[in-house]
Amino acid sequence: MNLLTLIITAAALSADAFAASLSCGCTMNNFRYRHSFLTAAFFGGFQALMPLMGWLGASLFRESWLFHNGHWISFILLSLIGGKMIWEGLHPDEECPDPEDVFKIGNLLLLAVATSIDALAVGMSLAFLGSSILLEACIIGIITFGVSWFGVFAGHRLSHLFGERMEEIGGTVLILIGIRIILGHYGIFG
Q1: Contact, 102 vs 27, CB < 8 A?
Q2: Any idea what DSSP says for residue 188?
Q3: Distance of CA 133 to the CA centre of its chain
Q4: Range with top average pLDDT, 11-20, 73-82, 169-178
Q5: How far apart are CA 4 and CA 92, in angstroms?
Q6: How far is CA 134 from CA 16, 30, 53, 141, 160, in A?
Q7: Cβ(7)–Cβ(141) under 8 Å?
Q8: How confident is the model at residue 97 (pLDDT cuts 50, 70, 90)?
Q9: From residue 105, how far is each of 35, 83, 108, 111, 160 by CA, in Å?
Q10: Where do the structural domains in the chain lie, given as residue ranges?
């Protein structure tokens, strides 16, 4: 894979991570570099790790249930997290422990996995093409890291424009990402 194709692929793979990081940023009361870095590290790390896993598993797991149903797993994870964000946005009077709950390690882990499953398929494709994977995985991870860091920052700034409704908007975006993954898998929306 040439460098330009790799950069375009990395940018396309990072689109879901960007949208999810926008949603994360919208929940911040005050911008925190620590949260932005942590989000970018999880998203970039998993976008780099998944192609490696796909490349390694191309011959081992070609017929596995996980490979054939990864799109549904992504959809379910994104819908659950997005639904939780919408619920908390619509019920502000109920006990909500922290508006920045999304930055807890478990939540970031779920989001990172859900937004990077498509990179698993890219890794498998690269294995079939005979490409070396280390450079590709590093570039995908670095680009996703930068895009995600900016996404958290931009989401925080947008939350000032849209106020308290931004958490509901962010949750809706996550659910729409899940729907796009399903539709893309079936060739309806690529």
Answers
A1: yes
A2: S
A3: 20
A4: 11-20
A5: 46
A6: 22, 37, 11, 11, 40
A7: no
A8: very low
A9: 10, 18, 5, 10, 25
A10: 3-185
Cα distance between residue 180 and residue 190, in whole Å: 8
Write out pLDDT tens, residues 43-89: 999 999 999 998 888 756 556 665 566 667 767 776 877 787 677 67
Give me the DSSP letters along the chain: --HHHHHHHHHHHHHHHHHHHHHHHTT-SS--HHHHHHHHHHHHHHHHHHHHHHHHHTTTSTT-HHHHHHHHHHHHHHHHHHHHHHHHHH-TTS--S-TTGGGSHHHHHHHHHHHHHHHHHHHHHHHHHT--SHHHHHHHHHHHHHHHHHHHHHHHHHHHHHGGGHHHHHHHHHHHHHHHHHHHHTTS--
Q: What three-state secondary structure class fits 107? A: helix
